[in-house]
From TrEMBL:
Protein name listed in UniProt: Peroxisome biogenesis protein 22
Highest taxon, organism lineage: Eukaryota
Gene Ontology biological-process annotations: peroxisome organization
Organism: Aegilops tauschii subsp. strangulata
A Pfam family reported for this protein in Swiss-Prot or TrEMBL: HAD_Pex22
Length: 103
């Protein structure tokens, strides 16, 4: 689930995920990447879907969902305090997923 402003923003996100190799590695399914234009809608959408993983850049949404979602990745250029043991933090998708072979 990703917050976007328009169709162009949606394509940029899909392109970034593709360039990171997440669709070819089996980590993500392109058709299951969802987009929403409001934070309230995004929080509600994610809770209804109950995914194993959720990636978000909003600290408020990450906090609200931390007790409902198995794993979360908070994308933030600034180092943030860990909200919960199931919430990971990274400066970018590339940085987090780039180290998959090293985990």
């Amino acid at each position: 689930m990703e917050h976007v402003l328009d169709d162009e923003s949606e394509e940029k996100v899909l392109s970034a995920l593709s360039e990171a190799g997440l669709f070819t590695s089996g980590s993500l399914v392109r058709e299951k990447v969802l987009f929403c234009s409001t934070e309230i809608g995004r929080t509600s959408f994610v809770r209804q879907l109950e995914p194993d993983w959720h990636i978000d850049s909003s600290p408020e949404i990450v906090h609200q969902l931390s007790r409902f979602i198995k794993y979360q990745l908070h994308i933030s250029p600034q180092q943030t305090e860990r909200v919960s043991p199931n919430v990971f933090s990274s400066a970018s998708l590339e940085q987090f997923f780039g180290g998959l072979d090293q985990r």
